[in-house]
Amino acid sequence: MWENPIVLKIPSDGKMTEEQFFKFCQINQDLNIETNKFGELLIMSPAGSETGNREFNLCGQLWLWSEEDATGLAFSSSAGFTLSTGAKKSPDASWIKLERWMSLSQEEKERFAPICPDFVVELMSPSDSLKTLQVKMEEYMAEPGVKLGWLIDRKERKVYIYRPGMETECLENPETVSGEAVLPGFVLKMSKVW
User: Fold this and answer.
1) pTM, 2 dp
2) Quick one: pLDDT band at residue 64, thresholds 50, 70, 90?
């Protein structure tokens, strides 16, 4: 199991275009591929089965709330987004306010949409490094539009709550986590995630 993603450096004269990167990801569907703001490829191993099940439970709870709330759209870890820095990220779960999503063109929606979700979640798998995911969360928090982020450390039973411009809050073994004013009424039941 990898502790950190493999970083592939592409020479500046050989940098992939948006379309080439999208195709690269499509032909390598068994890998979780992102880029950072420097254009380096970050290749991570797929989540194990247990982590995949916990992620599915997390996404299911978010989807059910999102369908009832109807003010935005929920996304799974298969969705990729292009941040303002040019980095391309795929949070384990995310949600975008409907009016922000509708401001994108159909072509933008079909690729790695040039938007950072309002809400992002990263769920640590045994192969993830806490430090690497904390850096990723800080990258999200620097983006325009993001309002809330959760980093869930299943092994330690901790939830790190990120809000732009604020100190990170750490909840120890919570039974539930609230979506606050960003996701009014959404409460994640942690028994399905731990």
Assistant:
1) 0.84
2) very high
